[in-house]
Structure to design on (302 residues):
């Protein structure tokens, strides 16, 4: 069996949920504390044993390439000023071997993955989406690779979501289960509310066999008029069986505003320097809000 050594990070979407912030800056460069979201994803891939990463970029995504490039002037200045701790952090982002390919039009996630087919060739590979950051004892992608190595089949990372959230995700109709590994009857992309076959949702981590490109190459349009990766996975599932794996770890949804803010707060609360001032700040904000609500309740002006 061929080992999984390559990964695709699709990053060519328009990021409309964060406009206007993403008008000139890729959403993948929005930081959680001091690190762009895409760097968390790249680090997960490397910690999972991936050796070559291809980032699918599009218009206005130059900042991603600059971020992972060497910044001679900046490094020199930091060194001269003795700011070695920051220098170390800056160097970490240029120490990885990334490749880039452009998706000329954002025709959907499935199309973005298809754009990287020549780089992948005839090997199994991982896909990591920047919308989800996963904190886990064993990196999420590594967990999926382990399942792939055990079964020889494509494995999709899933976790439970609330029933009111299923319409936002690709959803799995699960079959037989052994521990956290499910056979899958059907994958459905963003089912209308109330029609989801379960609340097991696809979480932006995949290990796929290269046969997926046969289906992506059909360029069939799915939900939202886009070429959907989930639709191709469903076809692959009918052909050779695809597993869903309920991975261990906390998953942070950074692809939409509320999730992004909650993630930032959670990460800040676990940061030594920020924890206490942040807690004091939140307390003050909450008190101010409560006072406002009391005044509104009394019909007074705020
Ligand atoms: P999303 O739908 O979450 O990203 O796609 P988006 O389109 O950028 O965001 P919104 O919905 O407009 O706010 C999931 C991932 O797939 C990539 C995105 O960059 C994101 O990482 N993607 C999506 C592509 O690379 N190409 C596409 O055509 C669509």
């Amino acid at each position: 069996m061929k080992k999984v050594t390559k990964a695709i990070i699709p990053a060519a979407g328009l990021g409309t949920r964060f406009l206007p912030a993403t008008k000139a800056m890729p959403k993948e460069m929005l930081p959680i504390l001091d690190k762009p979201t895409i760097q968390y994803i790249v680090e997960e891939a490397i910690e999972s044993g991936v050796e070559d990463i291809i980032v699918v970029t599009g218009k206005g995504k130059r900042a991603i390439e600059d971020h992972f490039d060497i910044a001679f002037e900046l490094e020199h200045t930091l060194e001269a000023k003795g700011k070695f701790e920051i220098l170390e952090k800056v160097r970490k982002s240029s120490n990885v071997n990334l490749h880039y390919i452009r998706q000329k039009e954002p025709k959907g996630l499935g199309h973005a993955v298809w754009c990287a087919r020549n780089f992948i060739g005839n090997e199994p590979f991982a896909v990591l989406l920047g919308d989800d950051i996963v904190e886990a004892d064993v990196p999420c992608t590594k967990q999926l690779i382990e399942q792939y190595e055990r079964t020889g089949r494509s494995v999709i990372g899933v976790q439970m979501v609330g029933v009111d959230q299923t319409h936002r995700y690709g959803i799995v109709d699960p079959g037989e289960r052994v521990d956290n590994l499910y056979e899958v009857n059907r994958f459905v992309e963003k089912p209308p509310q109330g029609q989801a076959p379960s609340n097991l949702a696809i979480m932006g981590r995949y290990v796929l066999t290269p046969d997926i490109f046969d289906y992506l190459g059909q360029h069939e349009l799915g939900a939202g008029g886009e070429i959907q990766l989930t639709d191709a996975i469903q076809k692959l599932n009918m052909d050779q069986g695809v597993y869903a794996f309920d991975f261990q770890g906390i998953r942070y949804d950074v692809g939409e505003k509320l999730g992004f803010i909650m993630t930032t707060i959670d990460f800040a609360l676990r940061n030594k320097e920020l924890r206490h001032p942040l807690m004091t700040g939140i307390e003050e904000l909450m008190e101010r809000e409560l006072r406002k609500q009391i005044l509104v309740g009394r019909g007074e002006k705020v």
Q: What stands out?
A: Residues 293 and 302 are 9 Å apart (CA to CA). The chain has eleven helices and 13 strands. The domain at 6-270 is CATH 3.90.550.10 (Spore Coat Polysaccharide Biosynthesis Protein SpsA; Chain A). The pocket of uridine 5'-triphosphate is lined by residues 10-17, 27, 56, 103, 106-109, 111-112, 129-131, 255 (CB under 6 Å).
